[in-house]
Amino acid sequence: MSSKASTIWGGRFGFGPSAVMERINVSIGFDCRLYAQDIAQSKAHCAMLARQGIISPEDAKAILGGLDAVLKEIENKTFQFKTEFEDIHMNVEARLAELIGAPAGRLHTARSRNDQVATDFKLWVRDAIDRLLGQIHAFQDVLLARAEEHAGTVMPGFTHLQTAQPVTFGHHLMAYVEMLGRDAGRFQDARKRLNECPLGSAALAGTSFPLDRSFVASELGFERPTANSLDAVSDRDFALEFLAAGSILAVHMSRLAEELVLWTTAQFGFVRLSDAFSTGSSIMPQKRNPDAAELSRAKAGRVIGNLNALLIVMKGLPLAYSKDMQDDKEPVFEAADTLELVLAAMGGMVADMTVNVERMQAAAGAGYATATDLADWLVRTLKMPFREAHHVTGRIVKLAEEKGCGLEELSLAEMQAIEAGITKDVFDVLTVLRSVESRTSFGGTAPQCVRAAIKAAKGGS
Ligand code: ARG
Known about the structure:
The chain is mainly alpha-helical. It has helices spanning 19-25, 28-31, 35-51, 57-75, 88-100, 113-149, 169-194, 213-219, 229-234, 237-263, 291-314, 329-352, 357-365, 371-382, 386-403, 412-418, 432-438, 447-457, and strands at residues 154-159, 162-168, 196-197, 224-225, 271-272, 354-355. The chain has a two-stranded antiparallel ribbon. It has a two-stranded parallel sheet with strand order 3-4. It has a two-stranded antiparallel sheet with strand order 5-6. Helix 3 crosses helix 6 (113-149) and helix 14 (371-382) packs across helix 15. It is elongated. The relative contact order is 0.10. Arginine (ARG) binds at residues 27, 31, 87, 113-114, 117, 321, 323, 325-326.
């Protein structure tokens, strides 16, 4: 079944699209989210057309007033988005024509939906980056506050998820502050690169009208106009970079989520999530499930999937615009929404969680976590080569294991039976607290280093 031809390009069409054509073609269901950007760029374009004498001041005035009226209708939710107008650009323009009549037809002079959509989308991604940057910094503040509280709290550090060496919980949290710092850097970097205005590239080749592209660029907060019209209408690097930076951020959140899932188990017992961030079980009354952490972990899959989806959309496209590129928006919108939710949930959990300091400290001492400290002592005090010290320590650990006790619970005589040079001073390095206090190398886990790192992160260097 087909309907009447579109009024916008109806000139060369006898009748309109079939229902299925309309269904596959329509994007207003999601690109309505670009309304504010679309109207802002139309206003900048219109002002420029008038300044350049391409349209009359009267028409420009009518168009600008009409665009404001459309914006108000959308914001007041009285605007009716219509699928027959396909996308946000034509919905706005059609309503503008209803409101102001003939002058509306002049707005699209020297413009195409191709440069229009690229501009709208860049503006949207730029705003999304700014929102995410705010959230990333807020989450860093939460982590910094918790790290400060726990700069001296000892916990086991793991490699292969096997107890490796004692670390401080503050140090562990600060690792995520670093990750988030790089995430913020990637978004800022992407923002800088995207900040060129495609408008004025028209359909693909530029235009014969005497535009002032720099004026439009600066009106919209762009650094400059894009330099190649073909590239400008077919570039979606900014969306890919957003998704790539977002994917790495999502991976970081997923790793922290996984740690929360582990730490809140009865077996670890390091952390208790607040009631506000726990769920119960419908059958097992004792349960406190870390659903928000699990879902944050899961949602990384979506963000990564969205990056993958858009890479695949773009990979075979010849220059310049192809309609495939209309499918760029949903992945980006979904990723942005997901990241916003995950950052809020992760920040909420970390801010509210209770840390079981005793439990962490007890676990830090288990699993011969200070064995490296013993080996280092042998190197430092007895001038033993590290490889030999490693071997001697291994034998001492084996003895403790056979006796079912900790390293510090062996007697001096037992240790001396393995290495005669050992003195009672060795016991100084076998406690977890001494172990972490000794790790003072730059970037190390010692409480004083953690405090210095927090100060530096807060901008106090
Ligand atoms: N809705 C379209 C999109 O999002 C706008 C651009 C349409 N351009 C075209 N030549 N049909 O990509």
